[in-house]
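U., I forgot to send this yesterday:
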Amino acid sequence: MFAVIFALCASGASASVIVENFAFMKANNTVVAQGSFAFDSSKTGVIGYSDLSAFSISLANTTYDLAFINSLSAPYDYIYFGYDVAANLFVPAAVSGYANVAGPPACCEVYSGIMAGVNNIPNVGFFIDPLVGSAPTGADGAVANYAYVYANPPIAASYTITRVAAAAVPEPSTWLMMLGGFFGLGCVLRRARPSMVKA
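Result:
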């Protein structure tokens, strides 16, 4: 019993959850997609969807979240999220998914992207190309929403990432101290109760 209590008290420093808001804008600063993501403050380097505790993106009157992303299956669907924690930048990468979903594909198609979540059957989701000049040749900043049909997808010229919150998550030892305090207070109050004498 005391070993468990000691282990809880000796646990590491409190972690916090970092929440970032992001927006992709056209050259005239019109927002074409926006959302947020959350991750543990202990994460470093380039993180992906598996490192996130929350994610959402809204574009063309459609919102996708982490539950949608987790429903996708590699290598059939396009799935990618790359965020460099230290540089506060989205990181482009080659994103692959099957081109022919009706039958066994001979090959897959690979596109450069900075954020993607596309379910090839029934072809819903989103794909954001790297901004012009930030990735291999052909990067155009296209922001595609496959649930919404348009002749030409909007083109993002820039994006912003803004830290919203770093909420502290209490350590187990904090909970233990609080419970111990309530227990101690209960003992003191129990002892302080006056005894009743029968007449």
